[in-house]
């Protein structure tokens, strides 16, 4: 007996081709029949959902998510489920929670507390990539894939020193990456403006990428600059992965800061030349201009050498703190992409210590003016008082670059959503409906069908998933029903945790996780593991 028939729906199948009206049947978590309108007897089922006026698409794939602990902490996870996200890719920007030993786990929990909380509410009953994926398999709101975080791997094998790895340490890192790939990771990420991952030179990264390529995975770098030298940083990643014969997926690929206004086309020209020469490249973006990260990430890399405790000690020392200020405000620190800090672009979006909530929603410049002091004095005090746990919005993007890049054929969607903080970036709750409503329907930057392809089949192809990303018979029933006329992000910079409108139903494995616009209690998500044979 068929479980469900979704009747009279407009199928937008993920290929980019025009939508068509049909009935779609689902049984045992799979699409078992697609019956175009007017072609003989219609399918019947135990349940029929009248979807007249709605569109049916594959579930959206968030290619850049920071839900590594949120999926465990929050079974509801409406921030993503309500957007129609049915799969998230975790382990981003070179920093996450596997593989680790006890020392590394303690350090990584502290250094990315601003992204995920300090984890005091989590039972860290894993150490390996496979054990982390097993933890997800106990039941989560949406599916999840995992990238091996190169910064965590370096933290584990080398520590926090700014130096080349020894031969033994490089062998250790190769083994950790190989083990993670064998246990189900889809590739490896880096955060090359975050310590300690940024201490790795290209030769070291190339060796690790060769391991990833041997398992048919991909490399996903947050590269060395999105500001001064951004184009050169992109070129570095293209050349590095070509040398390693490794697929490349560029994380939150944009051109930010004043030096890159109008230069999105330069990036696309670089990528087109590399693709024409045989490179396997894709990228993701979020459909907003501001970025988001931690305040401590703005510091120069030397200030973070040795780990979080060493960073705090440098900030406490007046002479060293003055040297940090000079790098941040005058020279342009590598943590801030080589651009001298403009404190009126740095908005405090979250704090770990609730007693510091008065800073949230203000730029550093505004907070400093309120205290009658220089911005660096305010920033330094906040870093120390919040134990490096403060998050920021960085208002440095350009709308023309955002639109140009999202139209490229290798583009996919990624929220880069940080769910922590009182005032997170609205992309965490709004990326996918914002693409559909604002950029496709309202602005016509892409057609609705092409937008859906960017959010479904293209990321599925990058992840090498043979039965996801399309509305096709035999494929998994990870599906979204939305109203093309009303779908929109509810989240704004003023009210970032507002859920979207116009997405009444979301199914994972044929089960409703969103039904009639409300989150059910279904936990249908599991880890999505790549099982490639080593070449």
UniProtKB/TrEMBL annotation:
GO terms for molecular function: hydrolase activity, acting on carbon-nitrogen (but not peptide) bonds, in cyclic amides; hydrolase activity, acting on carbon-nitrogen (but not peptide) bonds, in linear amides. Residues 48-514 form the Amidohydrolase domain. It comes from the Bacteria. SUPFAM superfamilies: Composite domain of metallo-dependent hydrolases, Metallo-dependent hydrolases. Signal peptide: none annotated. Pfam families: Amidohydro_3. One of its GO terms (cellular component) is cytosol. PANTHER family: COLLAPSIN RESPONSE MEDIATOR PROTEIN, HYDRANTOINASE/DIHYDROPYRIMIDINASE FAMILY MEMBER. This is D-aminoacylase. The lineage of its organism: Bacteria, Bacillati, Actinomycetota, Actinomycetes, Kitasatosporales.
């Amino acid at each position: 007996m068929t479980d469900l028939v979704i009747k009279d729906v407009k199928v937008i199948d993920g290929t980019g081709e025009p939508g068509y009206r049909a009935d779609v049947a689902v049984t045992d978590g799979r699409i078992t029949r697609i019956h175009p309108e007017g072609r003989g007897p219609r399918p019947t089922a135990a349940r029929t959902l009248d979807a007249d006026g709605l569109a049916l698409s594959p579930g959206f794939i968030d290619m850049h998510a920071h839900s590594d602990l949120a999926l465990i902490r929050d079974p509801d996870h409406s921030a993503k489920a309500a957007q129609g996200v049915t799969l998230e890719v975790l382990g981003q920007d070179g920093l996450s929670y596997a593989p680790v030993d006890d020392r590394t786990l303690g350090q990584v929990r502290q250094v990315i507390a601003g992204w995920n909380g300090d984890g005091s509410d989590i039972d860290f009953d894993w150490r390996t990539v496979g054990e982390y994926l097993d933890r997800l398999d106990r039941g989560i709101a949406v599916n999840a894939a995992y990238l091996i975080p190169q910064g965590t791997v370096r933290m584990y094998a080398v520590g926090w020193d700014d130096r080349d790895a020894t031969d033994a340490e490089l062998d250790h890192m190769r083994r950790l990456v190989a083990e993670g790939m064998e246990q189900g990771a889809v590739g490896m990420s880096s955060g090359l403006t975050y310590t300690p991952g940024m201490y790795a030179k290209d030769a070291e990264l190339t060796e690790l990428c060769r391991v990833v390529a041997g398992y048919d995975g991909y490399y996903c770098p947050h590269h060395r600059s999105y500001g001064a030298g951004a184009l050169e940083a992109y070129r570095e990643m293209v050349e590095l992965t070509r040398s390693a014969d490794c697929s490349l997926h560029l994380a939150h690929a944009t051109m930010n800061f004043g030096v890159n206004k109008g230069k999105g086309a330069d990036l696309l020209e670089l990528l087109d030349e590399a693709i024409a020469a045989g490179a396997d490249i894709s990228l993701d973006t979020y459909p907003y201009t501001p970025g988001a990260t931690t305040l401590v990430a703005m510091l120069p890399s030397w200030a973070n050498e040795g780990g979080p405790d060493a960073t705090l000690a440098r900030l406490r020392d007046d002479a060293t703190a003055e040297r940090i200020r000079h790098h941040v405000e005058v020279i342009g620190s590598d943590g801030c992409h080589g651009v001298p800090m403009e404190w009126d672009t740095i908005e405090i979006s979250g704090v770990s210590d609730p007693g510091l909530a008065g800073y949230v929603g203000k730029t550093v410049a505004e907070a400093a003016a309120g205290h009658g002091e220089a911005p660096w004095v305010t920033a330094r005090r906040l870093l120390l008082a919040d134990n490096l746990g403060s998050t920021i919005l960085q208002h440095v993007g350009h709308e023309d670059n955002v639109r140009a890049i999202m139209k490229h054929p290798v583009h996919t969607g990624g929220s880069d959503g940080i769910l922590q903080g009182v005032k997170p970036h609205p992309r965490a709750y709004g990326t996918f409906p914002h693409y559909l409503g604002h950029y496709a329907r309202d602005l016509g930057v892409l057609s609705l069908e092409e937008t859906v392809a960017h959010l479904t089949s293209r990321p599925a192809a990058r992840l090498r998933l043979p039965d996801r990303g399309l509305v096709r018979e035999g494929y998994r029933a990870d599906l979204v029903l939305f109203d093309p006329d009303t779908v929109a992000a509810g989240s704004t910079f003023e009210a970032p945790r507002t859920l979207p409108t116009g997405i009444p139903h979301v199914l994972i494995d044929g089960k409703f996780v969103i039904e009639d616009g409300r989150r059910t209690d279904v936990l249908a998500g599991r880890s999505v593991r790549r099982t490639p044979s080593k070449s």
